[in-house]
Amino acid sequence: MKFTETPIRGVFTIELEKRGDDRGFFARLFCEREFQQHGLNPRIVQGNNSVSRYRGTLRGIHYQLAPRAEDKTFRCVRGSLFDVVIDLRPESPTFLKHFATGLTAENRTMIHVPKGCANSFLTLENHTEIFYLASEFYSPEHERGIRYNDPKLGIKWPMEPMVISDKDRNHPDFDPAIHLK
Known about the structure:
The chain is mostly beta strands and about 180 residues long. The protein has helices spanning about 30-35, 165-170, 175-180, and strands at about 1-5, 10-15, 20, 25, 45-50, 55-65, 70-80, 80-85, 100-105, 110-115, 115-125, 130-135, 145, 165.
């Protein structure tokens, strides 16, 4: 795997290193040792699969607070999406900044989202499917969300989201009193 740190500390894109022949290829999606070598938490307690039927489906902006904060590693396995990671760590020089990248089934690139950062994605094709690993169990009481078009975040989505759950549509704008405690 090839790990590339983004401008946000701890957020990495991860490219697969394919080893192939005329049959196809083999590549590792996860290696505890390599994650540790890059300072990433290798703990995995849950694997999740999300399918969005329609192009323009927005999911997020989601994260969990401590003590259930989680590291997540995402990979698109069908279709394509625009993934956004937002730094919510007040001590970070990139606090409230974001990093965005395209994940597709063809490029097989993954994105690692550390604790203290939130994640959201917008599907760019019908029937887009994403698989992700999480370092902590889902905890509804620790889950938080931020409105996807909060002007404080300045995210430039590649298209206007067309399908959004009521829950995601009604998340509040960022407020430290709500989102950091």
